[in-house]
From TrEMBL:
It comes from Photinus pyralis (Common eastern firefly). Residues 42-140 form the Exocyst complex component Sec8 N-terminal domain. This is Exocyst complex component Sec8. Residues 268-437 form the Exocyst complex component Sec8 middle helical bundle domain. It comes from the Eukaryota. It holds the Pfam family Sec8_C. Residues 638-663 are annotated as: Disordered.
Amino acid sequence: MEQPPIKPPRGVKPIKETSGLLMSVIRTLSASETNEQRDREKAKLENEYKQSDRKLDELILKHENNLTKVMQLFSALSQQISESREKIHTVKENLKACKTLLHCHRDELRKLWLEGLEYKYMLQLLEEVEKMIEVPNQLTNYLAKKHYLHATELLVRAVSLGKRSLDGVEGLKELSQELESKKEHLHLQLVNELRQHLYVKPAQNALVLRRQGSGKEGLFSSPLQRSIELRVSSRQRTAVRRNLLEPSKSTSKKKEFEIEEDLEVTDPEADSAKFMGILVKCLMLLDKLPFAVDKLKMEMQSELLTIVQRTTIYINDYSAIQSDIKQTKQNALLELMLTLFEQFKEVGEAHALLLTHLIRAAEGHAVPVKVYDMSLFWAQVQSVLQLLLNDYLDIQNISNESQLVDNFTDPNDISSYFSRRKQQTKKQSLFKFEGSLSALTMSSNAKDIPSSRNSREKILVCSPDANNITLIFIPLMCFIEEIEQMLKLNQGVSCSLHLFVANYITDGFIMRKRAETMVQIDMAVRAADAWKTTVLLDATTDYKPLLLSAITVEKCIREWRELLRTLPSYSEQLLKSVCIALKEYKDTCLAAYQGIVQPHSEDRRICSAAWLKDEDISRFLKSLPNWLNLKAQQECQTRNDRRKTNRDLHPEEESPEDVRQRNRREAEILGSNLGEGGVSAGEILSDMLLLKELAQLQESMEWFSVRMLQFIRELRQEPSLAPAQSTPDPPLSVSSATLQQLTSIAQDFDELANTCLLLLHLEVRVQCFHYLLAQSEYNKETHEPDPKVLELSRVLANVDEAMTSSLQPRKCKYIFEGLGHLIAKILISSSQYMKNIDETGIQRMCRNVFALQQTLTNITMTREVALDHARHYFELFFLTPEEILNAIVEKGPEFSELEYMNAFQLLSRSKGVKGTDLVNKYMQKLCDILGEVGVTV
């Protein structure tokens, strides 16, 4: 089917070919001169018209259907146009009639129009009144479900409506006042809700998480374990919380603060971050945002103190059901601090979220509010912790402790207890807390909140004590480190809480601890029987009673060692205090030693003590084999004690000849120095109690030096000597100079112990010279030994009894070993001082030797072969000089040439031989014989 004809577009005019052709024909006819031309033109036109008719007929036939449709459509359109013209004409007639009528009733219409406006406005007011009446119920519903944003928007609209359009409605004045009052109270409720989400809920969440996390091990676990866990994880937790100071960085680009409230949510507080944003927007709508920020800043410290009080009550309630009250009280403070740290961190995160919303609100809506930053919050946290530490560390009584230090005189006065020393003046106050930074901070805080802090009843989990710092120091410093990292302080700059703790420990705690240690040492050494009272630490035979003062000081050192573990950051200051205490105790022990060996003036000295002051003699005694053997046994004993092994420390048995050779040189040196002048009674220690005190002092000093050296090894973290721990403490930062000073002091104690032992060793030998070389009157007819010999035997027995109860067996062996050689040397040398000797005298000397030999045998539990040698010497006097010479030729020399010469001279004096010719003859023969056989003695 062919398409119907298309109407040409408007504005397009068809080419008027017909008119142009007609004009051309008209011009041709006008210009023709004859009828023939006109006929030809006429015939031409007729022919063309016929062709046109024929073409038109063909086209009509061809487009008959389309033409029919077009005609029908044209007829319909023409009819519709005619009808529309009739209607328009009718409307025009009506409008003309209305115009005519309106001109007739203009005033009446204006009046009706105004009345319609009034009725419409009254209807609008009635609708607003109905809405106002429903506002209280809707507001109550919103507030009950904590849909604060809808409630605030509703209330703001209602109050604004009451002030504008409904201001003159008398019936709504009471309702408007009620809504105005609710608006004034709503911002307080919003601030309280904000306070709940800033402090109460974060603190409760932290407490619940901590209780759940410690459920397996109990709420109060080991303080050491807690401290180690905190040291390990503090850096990891700090990295997570570093962005708390800059909460607005990620959201600062947002220009608008838009937040929506979902009415279908049953618990709007579940999402705390969004809920706080809603509260901020509500306060912004109420124009109370500046007031809320100021209120939060003003009440920040009091709210933190409230958290402390609630947590303290909770810890007290939990600790009340524990069985071990003492242990619980010790761990309760640590648990309180750890819980508070977690709570403060949670509260800090809540403040960071709040600051994010505040900054967005202030920037997005141009609210003039001075937003605080996180540094203010952490400053308040530090102030609260300072107040808390002030209660638990008993800082308010630090001034009383400083008075104790003032009343305690210079520790050098302890030494003056034993010797005459110049008294030193009293020290000034070591520490006054009133002028420290922490005291000034606390006083300013107290002025800021006079009623909130003072009105609270102080509820503590444990009694205030300065030693509480040792329980909480490590976790406290971990928390301080996190605060300083979040505050982004420069290198070397510390926060106020760090300075507070540092001032307290260095200027208060360590000073007071040092004063307490000095007082304990002073009380231990100034007691009436301070150098007599002993305590047996171990019942085994290798251990002997130790002086109570040494045990007291060692206990103090162990306490300081514990302080090094709990206060590792102050190891240098602690060790310096240890050095001071040890120096004073060392001076006291030296004074005690001087009080024993020098009881009178400088002119009256004990012979053995005077000898030991000579460095050559002291070095000689320490170079002898018996001393070296003793020190080797001591070192082996110490090493085995550290390794906790039981090993036989007794050396192999030595032959009598080896023992004689080992002790011969000492006997010769002592004999050459003491054999000529003798020793008076004033030059010996005749009181056995003094010798026992020396022995106890030696044993205590040696034990104390060993413990000190072990303490120093632990400080140096030697792997083989450090105690085994599953989680070892970190190495302490101790300077080499301090360690060297401690080592020097420990060596001084060891040197004092060596001096005491050498003195006892020498004293026994000096007393042998005193008794054996003394000239005494005795009954020549009796067969008993000399009285001095009997007295020496008694003295040796008493010395053995005193030493055995005070010294270890190896030391007793050192004191008495070689004594038989010395006694034999003294007895043999005494022959040169005898005027004569007879058979009775020879027998008496043999009995003297036997008595001494029996005494020494009972002491050393070995036969003293050297005294047999002395007895053989005196048996020579039963022989004649010729018989002695013949015996030398037959058996060889048994004694030295000098001893034989003294024997020949005594035999000559005893037989009354005058002159020296005969004696010289025997001596010459002796020289010849000894030159031939060789001296083997």
